[in-house]
From TrEMBL:
The lineage of its organism: Bacteria, Bacillati, Bacillota, Clostridia, Eubacteriales. Pfam families: TPP_enzyme_N. One of its GO terms (cellular component) is acetolactate synthase complex. This is Acetolactate synthase-1/2/3 large subunit. One of its GO terms (molecular function) is acetolactate synthase activity. InterPro entries: THDP-binding, Thiamin_PyroP_enz_TPP-bd_dom, TPP_enz. It comes from the Bacteria. Belongs to the TPP enzyme family. GO terms for biological process: isoleucine biosynthetic process; L-valine biosynthetic process. It comes from Eubacterium uniforme. Residues 1-125 form the Thiamine pyrophosphate enzyme N-terminal TPP-binding domain.
Length: 177
């Protein structure tokens, strides 16, 4: 089982029945995993990434459940920040899942950009408007990252969380399950 398939299984196990998303190259493995389970979880396609995050926020407000959205990398992920901020300020649980470039193309520990197409440091950008912001940069511990993100959105005062999900990790087999 790869990380994308695990994440979809996890969401279904938690009772998530609807997700809101915008297609893009760096989120395709996750979208494929959603498609395989389309009878159990409905994907609502939005016309803009901001609409995905705001739809997830509206869903959380009206149902009392966690709202889940996905976008592609870079500017696509950044377009969802308004919905995350809304959830943060008003205390509603949403989870953003944002595809990103493969880990080998991401910024290294030295801070030197590796020139990944549409690479963004999403964790730094969302740290002040989320309860938890993380890059899943290895399949080891992925299970814990997903569980923690989901629980953080719902614990205490509810709010948004975001998972930066690199393409190679979406396709990687789960390790440490």
């Amino acid at each position: 089982m790869n990380c994308s398939e695990y994440l979809v299984d996890f969401l279904i196990e938690q009772g998530v029945t609807d997700v809101f998303g915008y297609a893009g190259g760096y989120i395709v493995p996750f979208m494929d995993a959603l498609y395989k389970r389309k009878d159990e979880i409905t994907t609502h396609v939005c016309y803009h990434e901001q609409g995905c995050a705001l739809a997830a926020d509206g869903y959380a407000r009206t149902t009392g459940k966690i709202g889940v959205y996905f976008t592609t990398s870079g500017p696509g992920a950044v377009n969802g920040l308004g919905g995350l901020a809304d959830a943060w300020f008003d205390g509603f649980p949403i989870m953003g899942i944002c595809g990103n470039v493969p880990t080998k193309e991401m910024k290294g520990f030295s801070g030197i950009r590796q020139n990944g197409f549409q690479e963004m440091d999403l964790v730094s950008m969302t740290r002040n408007i989320t309860k938890y912001s993380v890059t899943a940069n290895t399949s080891t511990g992925f299970v814990d990252i997903i569980s923690r993100a989901y629980n953080m959105a719902l614990l205490g005062r509810k709010g948004g969380v975001i998972i930066d999900f690199p393409l190679d990790i979406q396709q990687a087999n789960i390790i440490g399950r």
